[in-house]
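Data deposition worksheet. Section B asks for the primary sequence of the deposited chain exactly as it was used as input, without tags or linkers unless they were present during the calculation. Section C holds the resulting structure in token form. Section D is free text for depositor observations; keep each observation to a single sentence. Incomplete worksheets are returned to the depositor.
Section A, Depositor: J.P.
Section B:
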Amino acid sequence: MADGSIEVYESEGRRFPPSAEFAAAALTNDRSLYDEADADFEAFWARQARELLTWSKDFDTILEWDLPFAKWFPGGELNVSENCLDRHVAAGRGDRVAYHFEGEPGDTRTITYADLLADVERFANVLKGLGLRKGDRLAIYMPMIPELPVAMLACTRIGVAHSVIFGGFSPDAITDRCVDAEAKVIITADAGYRRGEPSALKPNVDAALEVGAPSVEHVIVVDRCGTDPMMVDGRDHWWHDLMAEAEPRCPAEPMDAEQLLYLLYTSGTTAKPKGIMHTTGGYLTQVAFTHKYVFDLRPDTDVYWCAADIGWVTGHSYIVYGPLTNGCTSVMYEGTPDTPLPEHRDGDRADWRKDRLWDIIERYGVTQLYTAPTAIRTFMKWGDEWPDAHDLSTLRVLGTVGEPINPEAWMWYHRHIGRESCPIVDTWWQTETGGHMITPLPGVTTTKPGTATNPIPGVYAEVVDDDGNAVTEGGGYLTITKPWPSMLRGIWGDEDRYRDTYWSTYEGRYFAGDGARVDDDGYIWILGRVDDVMNVSGHRISTSEVESALVDHPAVAEAAVVGATDEITGQAIVGYVILRGTASASDDLREEIRQHVAKKLGATARPKAVFLVPDLPKTRSGKIMRRLLRDVADGHDLGDTTTLADPNVVEAIRAGAEAGDDD
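Section C:
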């Protein structure tokens, strides 16, 4: 692989130690956490589990490890809902705000821990009334509204595993996930607000159920936007009607530490998404630990905002389970940050749309902001004046979500959002890891712009070369060498795929396809994917999924997809398409093909560009050389093409690209 050299911001200074004031005020972070974990990492995690969580039955073993299968805290029993809600209310903190909810149209709700518990208990009874029991699965396809965490927590209260499906996904994606999980119920809404308008959700569920998913017996619908969707008698139920009839009390049932908590589907190198399995005790331990220490949490005074979507693992761990376990007050926002408040929509200043995010921070007094590098790069394009015009003095910790951030964006975040006084925690983790794995700790770690630095206490990572040998300096492949509490427990229904996907490349090591570089200080720089999975705005999308959607179009004979470098999203999807003989190339057809992918997979997977090409670059054995297609998309030198069956193909593709055959 490439050497992965990094251009460090020398002119700004390479190191950013936390200020003396911040270091002195840090909660409990110090090197002793690392020392304790290095002495006995199992005992370290056992202490975190006992101190951070409430157990109805203590565990008698810390870890059972039969590579690649782990069981953390076997014998122990606990309930996630009780840890997130009941214990805080019982301790007299029921009046503490759990969520400041901000709807995109401007509506707001203040939800206390007591309010949230009452709704969760009622909805747990709703689920039981529909016949759901411990071990069942259901799907959630909802906008970012408070009913979403209510539904998730109600599942945990009675032992039903949830599968949250991102609200931007298509009916096909809903069908596939419900079929694989054998979901009995889908929880949705009529629509959710997106860029100022209702974005339909219930019609997508109807379309999905017309195609398949016979296991689904009931659909529960939140009336969010008043769009009056079609309701199927006997199958579809209004959320508010069911809640009005439900009993108010539902005791939390003790769950085994290894009880399945949720499934979350993520892209792999095949067209079939993987149902990642997360269980209860280990997952909750690590997300509670990382939320507390990585964000230097002070739950009595902090107002924390993870500006992500619960449809992805970030929202599971750092909007719902981590913050609520720690008794934190969070902000939850429904829509996009560039949607203006209602009072600004008809004014003279169209650029008021760029004030929404900073206005939320200022109004609620946000102390920790956790957002994606993609969003930061977008804010940079808007200009410095928008955040500079607001009082962001309450912020004291900034974070970036799970994907590489370039040093320039890091510095802009540091200067214009953190006002050069906030530590930045740049995190690396995945759907599969469940929680943060590599990140600085405020008050301890000396940071550098653009690097996630080192693994957290109790997590052990190494960069290795092609032969699996550890790399002490230079580029290679990121591996994890020991089990960790929030690790995935497998792929739903496919034990062999779990082993082959994550544990077969390097013996005894977890490897999920990320490249990394170790610098001369031993810091780890995440370089991005090295397999056939693209990282678009932090969302993992399989090239084969998009290729399958492309060839599903009746005009397409063959297709190849690559992730091209994009300064905003990290990677952008570029498709190369060979048309059938009966089809004629046109701009309208290219746009139709792009929209076809969006219909099949959702808008996130829609290619940024589609090239209509005469052929694809293939080796003499017939393998498509995606590296060359990626180089064309990025404008790089193509290097040696003599191994191709037809070396002239790439030049023809490049000529078409340079002629403007893109979007």
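Section D:
Residues 113-129 form the longest helix (17 residues).
The domain at 534-658 is CATH 3.30.300.30 (GMP Synthetase; Chain A, domain 3).
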